[in-house]
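Hello,

I think I submitted the glutamic acid job twice by accident. Can you confirm which output corresponds to this input? Input:
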Amino acid sequence: MHCLRVCSVKSALILQLHKGTNLMNDLLEQILADCTPYTSQGHVATYIPELANVDPDRIGIYISLPDGTEHFAGNCMDLFTMQSVVKPLILLQALMDSGIDTVRALVGVEATGKPFDAFNYSDQALTGAHINPMINTGAIALCTLIRGETYEEKFSRLLELARHLAENPELCVDEAVYESEKLTGNKNRALAYLLTAYGMISDPVEKILDCYFKACSISVNCRDLAKIAHVFANHGIHPATWEHLFPAEYAKYVNATLATCGMYDGSGEFALEVGFPAKSGVGGGIMAVAPTRMGIGIFSPALDKNGNSVAGIHLLEEFSHRMYLSIF
Ligand code: GLU
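Support: Only one job matched these inputs. Its output is below.
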């Protein structure tokens, strides 16, 4: 009885929100105003020098719903670089080009309990079981499984995938961020050489990293992230055209990895408080997937100690509670 009542209140609220564009916009404006003060609690990433130039007070949210409507608030059309938010796309492209078994054999799926760029693999040999697709070693290794004669071609395929899913043919690389990361990304070089030392990759490190750095430097806005997330939420089917963009089992693979490893060392807390798959990046973006319900794009570049957007997480917490989005 209690459950029925809760469910019908839930459905009524959701229906009302879906019906009224203004209601949804009002809700987004309201939670944005409530969460804006949190921007002062974080710091923009500075280890990639170009990222230090971003205004920490920016905050935006964009959602893409199954009825084709899109809603937004704040600085949702600001451009920022994907950084680690591109990792689900690297994983997806590797799955599409090399299949689940090959991907799984190279890179595992367990949360590491370590930062995204950790290289303290202690005295164990580095193997696939030690890494996952959402940390740097995993993503760098997966670049090798993207189809292409050259790493330029591999990157082009990845960029095309991002453009297609985001429905934005204009997505491109932010050259200043790319150059900045290429110049200073020695920790990623160390990780790639470690992968080489343990026989997990064999292509030239600089070529692989060039593809990885360019991927991290793809410039997007919240709308792009919401659109990409919506395809993952819809199990690989384009929510408007019903075109099958990729197999549902790949969407399941990516979403499951996001749910367990997508928010760095804050993934467990995020699962409890927000309750759906998401990927954050040190550029301040979060791509959040509410399965069967919607795609969400967030931007707010002031980060917490784990590298997640502070205000972005609060926005998602509020939105999830108000819309009953937790899958748990
Ligand atoms: N390009 C960044 C790096 O590899 C991505 C890190 C992130 O967003 O977590 O250091």
